[in-house]
Amino acid sequence: MTQRLDDAIAARRRAELVSGLRGLASRPIGGREQPPPAPDVELCDLCGMTIPLDHRHLLQLTERRIVCSCEACWAMRAGEGDYRPVGSRTVWVSELDLPDDLWASFQIPIGLAFFMDSTVTGCVVAMYPSPAGATESELHFESWSRMVSLNPVLAELEPDIEGLIVNRLADPPAYVIAPIDRCYELTGTIKAAWEGISGGAAVEQAVDGFFSRLRSGAEVA
User: Is there a contact between 177 and 90 (Cβ–Cβ < 8 Å)?
Assistant: First the structure.
């Protein structure tokens, strides 16, 4: 019995090192199930291991999905196949030239969206929040080209891994280049706070809080 227990523990440690098995947290060890993770504990989307709340993210390119990752999976998968590490910089763009007619050409129904250059679609994609999550719209090449010509800082936008967040609902409007996981965080924040048909006051408060947190740690361009 002791030998079997020792073998099981050794096997688990090897599995943790390679971080390649999903559902490891529920594997029986010594005849007993491991307890389920606490409600405030997150799991790696790739191997199922427990990870801290402050963990790394990868972007799954094809599905444009944010993947929570442990350190081992991040090291093995970053830059591999369809996975990319998300961006690391947050830049508050103090002045962005965005005329009303150019914004109208994007055909975004609300004044809040983020833009990412997708290597999968070969174009710039706009995503705006809704009660159901992010709604996607591909931009015409001419519209985004004009946007970049008016704002050369956008030529440095890293494809896939970071985006430009635009908040024209604020006064004055806010423009931020942010890691792509923070961009998706905005849509998740709105979805979680949405109430009723119009969204309610909680949405406005959630958006204000999101941008306050972004600005506190951002560079200024």
Answer: yes
pLDDT in tens, the chain (221 residues): 444 434 433 433 333 333 332 333 333 334 444 455 555 678 999 999 999 988 999 999 988 899 999 999 999 988 778 899 999 999 999 889 999 999 999 999 889 999 999 999 999 999 987 777 778 889 999 999 999 999 999 999 999 999 999 999 888 999 999 999 999 999 888 888 887 766 778 888 888 999 999 988 888 88
Is there a contact between 17 and 72 (Cβ–Cβ < 8 Å)?
yes
**In the 3-class helix/strand/coil scheme, how is the chain assigned residue by residue?**
CHHHHHHHHHHHHHHHHHCCCCCHHHCCECCECCCCCCCCCEECCCCCCEECCCCEEEEECCCCEEEEECHHHHHHHCCCCCEEECCCCCEECCCCCCCHHHHHHCCCCCCEEEEEEECCCCEEEEEEEECCEEEEEECCHHHHHHHHHHCHHHHHCCCCCEEEEEECCCCCCEEEEEEHHHHHHHHHHHHHHCECCCECHHHHHHHHHHHHHHHHCCEEC
Using a cut of 0.85, tell me whether the model's pTM lies above it: no
**Which of 218, 205, 85, 105 is CA-nearest to residue 164?**
218
